Structure formats: structure tokens, C-alpha cells
Amino acid sequence: MKDQSVILRLALPVPLMRFFDYLPPQDIDCKCLIPGIRILVPFQSRLLTGILISVENKSDVPNQKLKCALEILDDQPIFPGDVYKLCHWAAEYYHYSLGEVLSAAMPALLRKGKSAVLKKKISDETGFGDAALLLNADQQKAVNEIVAAKNIFRVFLLNGVTGSGKTEVYLQSMTEILQATRQILILVPEISLTPQTIERFRLRFRETIVALHSSLSDRERLDAWLLAKSGEAKIVIGTRSAIFTPFANLGLIIVDEEHDSSFKQQDRFRYHARDLAIMRANMNQIPVVLGSATPSLESLLNVKRERYALLELPLRAGNAELPQYHLLDLRSLPVEEGLSAELINIMKRHLGNNNQVMLFLNRRGFSPVLYCTQCAWMAECKRCDARMVYHKSPPRLQCHHCDAHSRLPEKCPECHEKSLQPVGLGTERLEQTLMKIFPDVPLIRVDRDSTRKKGEMQNLLDQIAAQPKAILLGTQMLAKGHHFPNVTLVGVIDADSGLFSADFRAAEQMGQLLMQVSGRAGRAEKKGMVAIQTRHPDHPLLQTLINEGYQAYAENLLNERKQSVLPPFSYFAVFRAESYTEEKVNQFLVMVKEMLPASMDSLTVLGPVAAVISRKKGFHCQHLLVKTNKRSVLQDSLKNILQQLESLAASHSVKWVLDVDPIEV
Q1: Total Cβ atoms within 10 A of residue 469
Q2: Distance, CA of 248 to CA of 225 (rounded, Å)
Q3: Burial letters for 217-235: b for 16+ Cβ neighbours within 10 Å, e otherwise?
Q4: Which range scores top for mean pLDDT: 100-114, 121-135, 188-202?
Q5: For the ranges 118-132, 220-234, 281-295, 504-518, which has the lowest average pLDDT?
Q6: Longest C-alpha distance within the chain, in Å?
Q7: Which of 15, 216, 451, 562 could share a disulfide with 457, CB 3.0–4.6 Å?
Q8: How far apart, in Å, are the Cα atoms of 72 and each of 13, 63, 105, 110?
Q9: Contact 117, 287 (CB under 8 A)
């Protein structure tokens, strides 16, 4: 018989900051109602997979109005205690419902109610046990400090120049942790890093290694997740969502390229995987290593405040030297399709010596604008305040914001003349130009368009490894973390985009990207060179970066941020709202602004203002920025108004999201 006094209190994946009560299914044994299990329930007109929070004996809702749960999906809690605790902390800090956070932490098949049972063993994932490399003094010191902290919580910032052997420090630190039969989580920022990273780790360790990233099928992700949960997988390498992976005995977390903005989730539940990694390490009393050649200003400030321990690798591994920089002033040089004559000559010299040249252009497609030379018409997206990008292969116009596609018009839709011209430079156009100038040199383009199919990225990396002489052309996918020993020249096609941006983080991100790109040159015995094309060669930020290095550059930026009271010396949250009607979104954010406690001296509310792309996917987008000098003030202010906002947004036909510690402002 069903016990009417048993009430199931569930967290559901809906954006409502409360729990939901249900009656148990018919003829259920109440002993199987363990907090943490998944339960399938009806919700409005759909079925949802919720997490049982508690079993109660009464509800605020009369029993006759309560719906019955449909199915108990687990016999044990789906998350271990530390993941549940992490989700609870994240829900409170980022101000999302616990149900949304728990749902985001689960693989897709578990969200859909599938059983948490391993379908296949991954038998070919064990490594070979290659010998460790000899460490230099700085590397050895770093390994010693990490290993000495293996049973306590400590945050290490491993700040090593590009090519300094950070990965070898990870590998030798991991050896000690694995010998203690503990597991290791390695977070990497890009899917493109994962095959190369896994291969490096497989060559070293005989342990079971699994990957977690969005290129895997749902089944592959669930199997990897379950192998980690059971303790069979000793090493997990994944992108940001892997921070929620359950482990039987977690002993170390490594966040590689910790500065990378892709660790911040930019839609739905907006969390920062690096920050959650630190919190999870704290909960487990284990060390966490943040590695980067270009650390974030937040991490550098935490070193100054003695919250993080600094481990430095100032020298490149082996006999490799740091590259030399060469600024090419585009104001005084002849330029053909984005390439100055001087850069072409330098390329010819390096290719003539049977080396590889890497060119960096952070803009995919053929050209960013399709333009009519007769009437000045430009191809624009019908759903966004943005221009359509011209892609040549296959021929199309594409919006890079909403992914809308359209056929190429044969003539101008406005004046009907056949006078359409591509304007501006993308990787496809530069590829076409390079093929004309260097017809006999293999050319390998790496961007999102050339790596869409599964396995395509690895295929391109294999081509790069097989060609001693080649031109590598790509976006930031090519710039991050890869080891290309034959590259002796890196050419930056346009270094100016980050120098004059409205986003206060743009200069930091530009410096990091330039250093990361430059770091691909001269990583082995061959000497490297970086040629940077710019129209502002005397810009103080650029001069500091290439003459004094990233440390001095970051120090200058920290001083600027301190004077301007910008993060990390203050704390931001952004309300991002959108509606089909511009007036409604504005009214909603004005109401939010009025609800925030303006009387607080340390709280500033700016806006609402239109987003940089003010209309996206047909929605009008506006932002409201909340700024304070104290994190606790920000948290309390947000908590006080969020309950009221649930009903307010519904009545205004407005979608909104709160972004705490935003990357894009």
C-alpha cells in the first residue's frame, strides 16, 4: 500500500528556485527512497528527471493536489557526496536552481532517464608506460611541491613560458598520486587539445584513461563517466563539464591553460570550471594545479595575496630558446590580401630552410562582408544586428551568431547590379592567396569549418606532423597548446583587434592569445621567430608585451584595473535579458534596477544598455551590470531580488539569465 504520509521532495531541472513535492509511485517500498536518486515525474505537460532531496511527512500542498511520481530510476544516489556538495555550492553562488545545476552535472542519457549502467568496457584505453623525461631544476622543484601537498588542499599556479615543459611536470606529479591508488582529473579548454593530450598521457601511464568532451556520443560520455565513478578509470581528461565527473577516490585536479575563457560556460547554467575546480579540491582536501604561460589576472592577484602558491618555469625545456619578435608596420608596407611583402619574404626564407610556417588569423570564412560596389548594400542577417559572413566552400552566406545560412545572391538585391564584392579577410581567402604565392608548399587550414567532422582535427594534426615543410593557417584553435616542433616562424596577420575594444578584458585576452600563438615557434632545437603585422607598432601595450614579456604586461594591466576598480579588484554580475519587443526587455531591466538596493554605498548598477549584438536570433538583447567592491554585498543583493524576478519575467514575456563573474562585459 502507498503510504500517504510519505512526500517526495525533488529538485527539478526548471529555473524556479524551489523544490517540488510528489507522492511516491504506487506500491513502492519506502526503503528504496534514498536522497540523491533520480525519479521520473510528470511536470506540466512533460516528463522530467528529478533528484530526490528528502523524504518528508507533510507538504504545503494538500495531498489530493499532489501528483504521483512515475518511476524510481536508481537504487543508489547518482552523485557521490562531493559532487552533490559542489552542485549545491554552485547553485548558491551562481544563483541557479539546484535542479538545473544537478541536471547540467549529469550526462545526457541520465537526464533522459536511462539507466546508470555501463554498457561496454573500454579496453583499449590503457597506456604504454614510457619512461619519464629528465627534469630541469625548476621542473623538479614544482613536482616536489605538488607531491608534498598530496593530502592537503593547496592551489598551485604553475606559470611556465610556452614550451617550458608544464606537461612533464603534470605527468611526474601524477605518478605519485596514481601510486597511492588515487584518481586524477585534467581539465583542458578546447576539444582540439583532447586527442593530443590523451595520446601524451597514454604513452606514459598503463592506467585506464578516459576522455569527456562534446564530440563523444551520449553513450560514450556516460560510459566514461561511469568508469570514473567506479574507480576503474584512473585518469579523466575533459573540457569544462568534466568538473562534475564523479570519482571513487580523487587525488589531484589539473587545470591546463587556466586563463582560457572557454572554461566559462556562456549559456544556460553559467559557471566557471576553473573556479569550481578550486572549490572541489577544497572540499576533497587535495591539491589543484592551474597551469599557464599567460595566467589570468585573477590568478596572479591571488598569488600576490598569498592564496595561491607560485611555481615558475622561466626556461624552455631542453635546448629550445624563446622566439624573437619582429613588428611589421602595415602603414608603410605594401600589402596583398592581408600579407605584407616583408612577411612573404620572411616566409620564403623559413620555408626554404625546410621548416614550417604558422599564420594566425582569428576570423574564419572567406570575408566578413559581402558588399555592393554600386549602391553600398551589405549582406546582413535578418535575425541579428550582424553582417552575414561570406564562405566560399561550400558557397554560402552565414551568420556566426545565430548560424543562419542563405544562398549567395548572383546580383545585388537592392540595385540588381552584378557588382557584389567580398570585403575583408578570413582564413578561406588567405588560404586562396597563399596557394597562389606558394603553389608547391603543402597548406593545412585549421578552423571550425575544416574540423567539423569527427576525427578531422586529429587528421589535420597527423598531416602537420608528417610534413616537414608546410604552411599552417588557422584561428585560435591552432594557437592553443599544440606542440609543432617544425614551426620556426609564426606570422600574426592582424594584432590590432584587442587594442581598442570596449570590453575591459580585451587587452588581457589579446596579450594571452599573442603569447600563446608566439609560443608555437621554435619549440625544439630550431630557433623561432614571430612576425606581427600591426598598424600601431608603437602602442605601449604591444611594446611592453614583446620587449618585457607577459609578466610585465600583466602587471601593467593589474595596475590599470586597480585604478579603475575593475575585476579582479571588484565583482560583477550581469543580467542578460531578451525579448521580441525592445520596449519589454528595457522595462524589465529598469524594474530589476529599481529592485536592487541603491542605498548601498558599495553597489553600483549600470544600464540597461543594448548588447554589442543588440538583436540576436530575432530577440532584442540588453544588459544590466551590477558592480560592487565586496563579493558578499553582490551575493546578498542578488539573493534578495531573485525570488521576485520569477513572476516578473513571466508577466513581461522576457527571457533572462544572470551571469555572475562574467567573462564578456
Answers
A1: 16
A2: 11
A3: eeebbbbbbbbbbebbbbb
A4: 100-114
A5: 118-132
A6: 87
A7: 451
A8: 17, 20, 19, 13
A9: no
pLDDT category at 518 given cuts 50, 70, 90 is confident
Q: Are 439 and 445 in contact (CB under 8 A)?
A: no
Report yes or no: 196 and 245 within 8 Å, Cβ to Cβ.
Answer: no
Task: Give me the chain's average pLDDT, please.
Answer: 91
Cβ-count burial 126-137 (b if 16+ within 10 Å, e if not): ebeeeeeeebbe
Locate 473 and state its grid cell.
593557417
Beta strand 405-406 with 396-398 is antiparallel
Q: How many CB atoms are located within 10 Å of the residue 336 CB?
A: 11
pLDDT value at position 124? 45
Say how far residue 556 (Cα) sits from the centre of its chain: 25
Q: Using an 8 Å Cβ cutoff, are 572 and 662 in contact?
A: yes
Q: How many CA atoms lie within 13 A of 343 on its CB side?
A: 31
Q: Cα separations (Å) of 310 from 302, 303, 552? A: 10, 6, 16
Q: How far apart are CA 350 and CA 488, in angstroms?
A: 7
What is the pLDDT confidence band of residue 1, given thresholds at 50, 70 and 90? very low
Q: What phi-psi label fits residue 212: left (phi over 0), alpha (psi between -120 and 50 degrees) or beta?
A: beta
Cα gap 532→317, rounded to integer Å: 25
d(CA 91, CA 107): 18
Q: Is the peptide bond before 35 cis (omega within 30 degrees of 0)?
A: no
Alpha carbon distances (Å) from 82 to 87, 93, 102, 125, 431 = 9, 16, 12, 26, 49
655, β-bridge pairs? 578
Q: What is the pLDDT of residues 133-166, one digit of tens each?
A: 889 999 999 999 999 999 999 999 999 988 888 9
**Which tens digits make up the pLDDT trace of 370-404?**
999 999 999 999 999 999 999 998 899 999 999 99
Whether 649 shows a pLDDT value over 70: the answer reads no
- SS3 for 421-467 is EEECCCHHHHHHHHHHHCCCCCEEEECCCCCCCCCHHHHHHHHHHHC
Residue carrying C-alpha cell 553562488? 93
Alpha helices in 519-630 (DSSP H): 540-548, 550-564, 582-595
Triad 572, 576, 580: Cα angle to 5°: 165
Q: What is the pLDDT of residue 580?
A: 94
Question: Angle CA(559)–CA(560)–CA(561) in degrees, nearest 5?
Answer: 90
506-518 vs 540-548: helix crossing angle, rounded to 10: 40
Residue 237 has pLDDT above 90, yes or no: yes
Distance CA 409, CA 30 (A): 66
Q: How many CA atoms lie within 13 A of 439 on its CB side?
A: 1
| pLDDT (average), residues 259-265 | 95
User: If we measure between CA atoms, which residue out of 30, 208, 230, 29 comes closest to residue 116?
Assistant: 230
Q: What single-letter amino acid sits at 594?
A: E
